[in-house]
Design a protein that fits this description.
Largest interface: A-B, 43 and 48 residues
Helix content of chain B: under 10%
Number of domains of chain B: 1
Strand content of chain A: 15-25%
Number of domains of chain A: 2
Largest sheet of chain A: 6 strands, mixed
Strand content of chain B: 35-45%
Distance between the termini of chain B: 31 Å
Oligomer: heterodimer
Number of strands of chain B: 41
Shape of chain B: globular
Order of helices and strands of chain A: HHEHEHEEEEEHEHEHEEHH
CATH architecture of the largest domain in chain A: 3-Layer(aba) Sandwich
Radius of gyration of chain B: 23 Å
Shape of chain A: elongated
CATH class of the largest domain in chain A: Alpha Beta
CATH architecture of chain B: 8 Propeller
CATH superfamily of the largest domain in chain A: Periplasmic binding protein-like II
Chain lengths: 274, 603
């Protein structure tokens, strides 16, 4: 049996400390009576509106099995319109902390970054995804798209920023208009209806979109981009004091990456274009 | 007496009891015995013994006519009482003192009434329960991160008007601490007003912070008798509204985090309400997809003058366009009747209107943004008078300011156009100026403003997608300003600049090692009080900038210094517990241990 040092005493002590932190503003009553962790199971929080939802549920089972624990999956409540074909968590970090205190041991679908609040820690990366160029079949290559045809990306995204910077670096006569849309689904809709000649898009989102739209026009996929876009890397978020659980999960993640489980699940859930 | 209240989302507007307007009898004895209903006349002409407004008066001067404590006897000033406040958060408070009672807002929605002469508690109100946000039951929460600071409250009639973490405004019976009415402006859990409300002529006005929200904030006007909302002004234009075209095609749904969280200022003479809006998230143009478009972002960093009965906009002026730097032009400006003959050669001049010459004009003046620049306008019309830095080279985000219109053009060299780009600019995300207010001395027509001599190395993040919860989505490191000289081998972070309002000329500059992230208070005793991150509460000679007194308290200072008088004895009070010590790791300035300290001369 693998069990983690999330004993009640530790949780209460941590809570008292956190309440003194001005950056973590959760009403005190929400921090009372934290969940009692089980000795034989591990609970994962997942976002049911994420494109990675089914993948993450299966991954939870795989990680738990590796640790010889019974998996529990808690679907978080989302009170905003869901973002289809996307991975964004519409939660503040302190809300994630609350879920970790009250509902689960590890939070799936957290994106890796350079730093985190001091009340959170993260696991090693379990999934790295990239953006791809999807080009209308009207054009053989990106360079063939004339400047009077727009290209698209999601606004407020690293992909959109990178594509915009690339376009601004082109000679003026070759600069496309960049249409930035509200969400991934609209970006892909505009490629399919011909509004734009190409899009820069998160690959798992495009893969799922094409699965859901079997009649969509065929698109050319370009992985080797003429500019850099940071990959999107996914980690588990945990409460900062859960060092031992993180150590155990790190070993489990290493195992499922090494034995091909991640790749298999990505394929099973139509999250790659291969 | 301790009053706690459980709230429910369904009671968005709650009136408790009847006869709000009816004056109540003061208790026959005790510190509340002298309480009398507060009228508009009292608020417009406050007794110097009282301190009735955040900012001291409607004009926001932070000035007192009391002179018992003065340059001759400041050395005798002694602490007469201190009282611990609610633990945690930031003690950035400004108490109200009326007829010998101090009404003290605390972090986390607590209000106390305290005997202002002795420090004894009279009553305490704690807004303990929070609404079930959006019907989320036990998963609901206040979703902003600003419950930990409460700056201002207002007094009107027989009530204290306070704002809550649940985006509420509510009235507390000043004598008893009982809730009279409340209005929860929204149940989405995002906005809150940390600075508090302004009350005038039977109406309550407040803004809000939306800094980590997926929405923008607004200003509302309410009936002071019931809390009923009378009008609401959004600041960011919607689709097809004037200014929509300045957002570079960013859809309304993706415009977020602009707020109006600074101090609102009401002008009883011109019946205008003045306020300012903040910047935008994410900060870098490149992350909003508008790099190279000169998207000026109408509605952000603007000053607004509106009619208080309807919210009708009389004039507005954008102080900073294209904000890539979190400069937040939301802070209080002061109202001053003054001759206006700006000196074209004033120190740090960015723009001086050559056509301006008035024997007397009501002027809206002060430092509205984090960027350390004084601006002056005609309060009634918005006519531009001048803009000047605290010193030449204090900032580098402006390219030009039109001298006749005040229209701004920003320095494109400090606009983020590339992912991962790093830029050096002045001032910082923390200010320059931040919420700590300046002061005005009517005897010399001089304004005073504390600022920090700081610049920033800022990087547009590429390690995470921009999102409302990530605010500006940049990494920032405070740096010294290369145009500031060291003093005795030490870099001075703290500064106070005294400027003549009429001419814009510098009266004096005060520099010190420690960050002075606290408001200032000027008095007729010739003093200018301020606090700093090294725990010093200090006073300068307001006419020369020379330090004449200091005392070291238990923790860093960030409260509003205020002064009042009870039974002929003048007191000076300040809250300690939160301050800043940027670039000065060697200074011993712990935060925490929120405490209100009160000083007076020996009896």
């Amino acid at each position: 049996m693998v069990r983690l040092p999330i004993v009640l005493f530790g949780v209460v002590a941590s809570t008292a400390g956190v309440l003194a932190q001005p950056v973590l503003d959760i009403p005190e009553r929400f921090l009372r009576n934290p969940r009692n962790p089980s000795d034989s199971s591990i609970a994962f929080c997942v976002n049911p509106t994420s494109a990675l939802y089914e993948f993450e549920k299966d991954l939870a089972e795989e990680l738990a099995a590796t640790l010889l624990l019974i998996p529990e999956v808690f679907e978080i409540a989302i009170y905003q319109p869901p973002l289809r074909y996307d991975f964004r968590l519409p939660l503040l970090e302190q809300e994630i902390y609350w879920y970790l205190l009250q509902r689960c041991d590890a939070f799936m679908g957290f994106t890796a970054a350079a730093d985190y609040p001091d009340y959170l820690t993260v696991s090693p990366i379990y999934l790295e995804t990239n953006s791809v160029l999807a080009i209308s079949p009207r054009f053989a290559r990106l360079e063939d798209i004339p400047p009077d045809v727009a290209v698209g990306a999601r606004i407020l995204s690293l992909a959109g920023s990178s594509l915009g910077a690339y376009i601004r670096g082109l000679p003026a006569a070759r600069q496309w208009k960049l249409n930035l849309y509200q969400n991934h689904e609209t970006v892909m809709d505009r490629l399919m209806d011909g509004t734009v000649g190409a899009i820069l898009i998160w690959e798992p989102g495009l893969a799922q979109y094409l699965r859901d739209h079997p009649d969509a026009p065929e698109t050319r996929i370009v992985r080797s981009l003429p500019f850099q876009v940071s990959p999107t890397q996914f980690v588990l978020a945990l409460r900062a004091e859960n060092d031992y659980l993180n150590y155990q999960l790190a070993q489990a993640i290493e195992a499922v990456v090494r034995n091909g489980t991640i790749d298999r699940l990505m394929a099973e859930h139509s999250l790659t274009l291969d | 007496m301790r009053v706690t209240l459980r709230l429910f989302a369904s009671t968005a507007l709650l009136c408790v009891g009847a006869g709000y307007a009816a004056a109540q009898e003061a208790p026959a004895s005790g510190p509340m015995a002298n309480f009398a209903t507060v009228t508009d006349e009292i608020l417009q002409n406050p007794d110097p013994a009282d301190w009735l407004h955040l900012g001291g008066n409607y004009e926001h001067w932070n000035y007192s006519e009391l002179d018992q404590i003065n340059l001759d006897n400041i050395g005798d000033l002694r602490m007469v009482w201190a009282r611990q406040m609610v633990a945690g958060g930031r003690a950035e408070v400004s108490p109200i003192i009326y007829k010998g009672v101090m009404f003290l807002p605390n972090p986390y929605d607590t209000l106390q009434a305290i005997d202002a002469a002795t420090g004894s508690l009279i009553w305490e109100y704690e807004r303990a329960g929070m609404p079930e946000v959006g019907g989320r039951d036990d998963e609901g929460m206040i979703r902003h991160t600003y419950s930990d600071r409460k700056r201002g409250i207002a007094i009107y009639g027989d009530t204290i008007i306070m704002t809550g973490s649940d985006n509420s405004v509510f009235a507390i019976d000043a004598r008893s601490g009982q809730l009279v009415w409340e209005n929860i402006r929204s149940t989405d859990g995002w906005p809150t007003s940390t600075t508090g409300a302004v009350v005038a002529d039977g109406r309550v006005f407040l803004g809000g912070s939306c800094q980590n929200a997926p929405i923008n904030c607004y200003v509302t006007g309410h009936d002071v008798a019931t809390g009923e909302e009378l009008w609401r002004n959004e600041v960011v234009p919607g689709p097809g509204e004037p200014g929509d075209e300045t957002w570079g095609g960013v859809a309304f749904e993706n415009r977020y985090c602009t707020g109006v969280w600074g101090q609102l200022v009401y002008d009883p003479e011109q019946d205008l309400l003045h306020y300012g809006s903040t910047g935008v998230c994410p900060a870098p143009d490149v992350q909003r997809g508008v790099a190279g478009m000169n998207a000026t972002l109408a509605g952000t960093n603007e000053r607004w003058a509106v009619r208080p009965d309807t919210g009708e906009v009389v004039w507005r002026h954008q102080i900073i366009a294209q904000d890539n730097w979190d400069q937040e032009c939301t802070f209080d400006m002061m109202l001053v009747d003054t001759p206006m003959h700006p000196n074209a050669n004033m120190e740090g001049a960015l723009a001086v209107n050559p056509t301006v010459s008035y024997d007397s004009v009501r002027t809206l003046v002060g430092m509205p943004c984090k960027n350390p620049v004084y601006w002056a306008f005609a309060a009634e019309t918005g006519e531009f008078f001048y803009a000047r830095e605290t010193f030449e080279g204090a900032q580098n985000i402006y390219d030009t300011i039109d001298p006749t219109t005040g229209q701004v053009a920003m320095n494109q060299a400090v606009i983020f156009t590339q992912p991962g780009q790093s830029l050096f600019f002045c001032t910082t995300y923390g200010g320059g100026r931040d919420w700590p207010s300046g002061a005005y001395d009517p005897t010399t027509n001089t304004m005073f403003q504390p600022t920090a001599n700081l610049c920033t190395d800022s990087t547009s993040r590429t390690d995470r997608e921009p999102a409302p919860g990530f605010n500006y989505n940049t990494n920032n490191i405070d740096r010294p300003n290369p145009n500031v000289q060291e003093i005795n081998g030490e870099y001075p972070v703290g500064r106070i600049t005294a400027v003549n309002v009429e001419t814009g000329d510098t009266a004096w500059q005060y520099l010190q090692r420690s960050d002075n992230y606290a408001p200032v208070l000027a008095t007729a005793g010739g003093l200018l009080f301020n606090g700093d991150g090294a725990r010093y509460f200090f006073a300068l000679n307001k006419d020369t900038g020379e330090k004449v007194w200091d005392v070291r308290l238990s923790s860093a200072l960030g409260g509003y210094p205020v002064t009042y008088s009870v039974d002929g004895r003048q007191y000076v009070a300040i809250a300690a517990g939160y301050g800043r010590n940027r670039l000065t790791p060697e200074l011993d300035g712990p935060t925490g241990g929120n405490t209100i300290y009160v000083f007076a001369l020996p009896e």
